[in-house]
Amino acid sequence: MADTIIKVDLNKSPYENDMIHNRWHPDIPMVAMVKPGDDFIVESVDWTGGQIKNNDSADDVRDVDLSKVHFLSGPVGVEGAEPGDLLVVEILDIGAFEESQWGFNGFFSKQNGGGFLTEHFPEAQKTIWDFNGMFTKSRHVPGVEFAGLIHPGLIGTLPSKAMLEEWNTREKALYDTDPDRVPALATLPYADTAHMGRMKGEEAKAAAAEGARTVPPREHGGNCDIKDLSRGSTVYFPVYVDNAGLSVGDLHFSQGDGEITFCGAIEMAGWIHMRVNLIKDGMQKYGIKNPIFKPSPMAPKYDDYLIFEGISVDEGGKQHYLDVHIAYRQACLNAIEYLTKFGYSRAQAYTILGVAPVQGHISGVVDIPNACATLWLPTDIFKFEVKPNADGPKIEVDGSVQVPLSPDL
Ligand code: ZN
Q1: Do 330 and 242 share a domain, yes or no?
Q2: Distance between Cα 198 and ligand 1 center (Å)
């Protein structure tokens, strides 16, 4: 078995662990060194660092301190890595801890985080998902069970000083276009809750004031939340600093395309087993600006879908020009409306789209003025027939008809 080079204690604050950090900065010291060809295990807390509990109240989601996220394990240094190289990361396996076989999904309140459908779901909500081997189900969402597509929501390399400055400059410029907006247009550096790993004293203070927040995906990877970047994938990351500095966290048991519920996928603490290699000068050799990856040879096999279309006409009937964001929102809202006909509350339906292996596709971007996006809902995750038929929606679980499900979310 490979060595565990970063350990976490779920009963302790992540601030007490100097192998964890929650900002991106080139000067965060490496917490371990590995060589090209090495494989190793890294443990990770959940992205909020234990702020969300396994109970039936969403108060913790409502009150979450989002300036603290994401808690990342690392950075791991790779001997010989230099700016311009590609860091090759094979994700050999990922799992939840034996003593923590559960995860959470939620929607933030509009006042604290928001999300893709925050205008429709302005209050905080939460569901707990229990893991049974490779499957998961929730006491808060009856009638569904599915196999996990386990992946790190967040994995990336340390930025260079120049790249950090570029990030901060462009994100501040966007923020400044509407500084009073709720939720904010971007998350800017915030020193008070920064955890700079092994940096200490004045140096840590200065770095905390400019360290980039971990919320967006960027050129180095970061918080991409790609469900298909799962165990078994091979990722090629740009390297910007000596030794690369690989950090990872925000492990997900499962997620639908778009991570539309924002808090988030099925979020969990756990471990990730990786092997690293280098392609010297690979960025220039292959013209790489953002990471590329090869998906896993293994994935849950759901090949029957009910596919919902959405176009770039918003909820108010306003026409937008080829706007994929609006089109995907309509596809999601159409799927939510459909699922309510089976007895789900709108919140339960939204949760299903956030956590199940739902696919999102950009289906058309040229047919002016409407973009067309599609949401692919796997039919086999339901314990009843979810496709339309002449008899109308009805739910059969274990042979007995249950109409409707009792919405308890
Ligand atoms: Zn996440």
Answers
A1: no
A2: 24
Span 278-298, average pLDDT? 97
* Sole residue written with tokens 């159409």: 334
In the reported structure, the alpha carbon of residue 17 is separated from the centroid of ligand 1 by a whole-number distance in angstroms of 20
Domain boundary among 267, 294, 321: 294
What pTM, to 2 d.p., does this model score?
A: 0.95
Cα-to-centroid distance, 266 and ligand 1 (Å): 7
Q: CA-to-CA distance for 378 and 367, rounded, in angstroms? A: 27
- Give me ligand 1 centre to Cα 96, in Å: 14
Tell me: do 113 and 35 sit in the same domain.
yes
328-373 tens-digit pLDDT: 999 999 999 999 999 899 999 999 999 999 999 999 999 999 999 9
Give the distance (Å) from ligand 1 centre to CA of residue 336. 22
CB 151 within 8 A of CB 268: no
Residues 215 and 351 occupy one common structural domain = no
113: left (phi over 0), alpha (psi -120 to 50) or beta: left
The CA 265 to ligand 1 mean position distance, Å, reads 5
User: By residue range, what is the domain housing residue 258?
Assistant: 4-294
- Is residue 157 within 8 A of residue 28, CB to CB? The reply is no
pLDDT tens per residue across span 194-204: 999 999 999 99
Token digits of residue 108? 């933030």
Residues 190 and 319 in one domain: no
Peptide bond into 369 cis (omega under 30): yes
Mean pLDDT calculated for residue range 119-140: 96
Ligand 1 centroid, distance to 252 Cα (angstroms) = 6
How confident is the model at residue 395, as a pLDDT?
74
Tally of structural domains, the chain? 2
281 and 314 in a single domain? The answer is no
